[in-house]
Request: fold
Amino acid sequence: GAVVSQHPSRVICKSGTSVKIECRSLDFQATTMFWYRQFPKQSLMLMATSNEGSKATYEQGVEKDKFLINHASLTLSTLTVTSAHPEDSSFYICSARDQGKYYGYTFGSGTRLTVV
Amino acid sequence: GENVEQHPSTLSVQEGDSAVIKCTYSDSASNYFPWYKQELGKGPQLIIDIRSNVGEKKDQRIAVTLNKTAKHFSLHITETQPEDSAVYFCAAAGNSGNTPLVFGKGTRLSVIA
Reply:
């Protein structure tokens, strides 16, 4: 079935530094990828929709200059958390929709970001 | 936009009993309704899904029902086992390829042995 590989699974960084999270679709082409953030004991909240070759669409309240999304190819989307602060600590999850499988969404395994 | 409500937020059942989780959605254009199981520290795993042209779908101990008129869908787990303990999320999405899933707030299911 469709697989999305997400890396790293865990990362600890210092305040003020930047962290890049990668999501790759391994066996299908992902025209669109979705980035979610999940705080402890809460649901997945959509941050942005990433479209290959164009600018990402951000949800209200999500700072696009802080959460940089690049979707340069049909198999790779990246999320860079810039100038990270402790409040950015969260679980970040990507998802892609396999256009070849009607309605199917596949999720990455998530990245636990801790900013110290 | 779409809004998905999920109830209950927590659910405890005895092993072997059934568990039911209910969700409602607001956008009549939504036509895909998956259910995910999430274990601690992991990404959500699809357990079953249903499309709007179907009223019920079953996969072994898991079933989902959909009422399009009332805009609600439910997850039914029968003969629950301790390994069913996890957080379950319902979600809804429309037909377009760039339509994201909108999630409910989740239900923490505890199966007591």
Summary: The two ends of chain B are 41 Å apart (CA to CA). The interface with chain A takes residues 32, 34, 36, 41-46, 49, 51, 89, 93, 97-98, 100-106 of chain B (CB under 8 Å). The first strand of chain B starts at residue 4 and ends at 7.
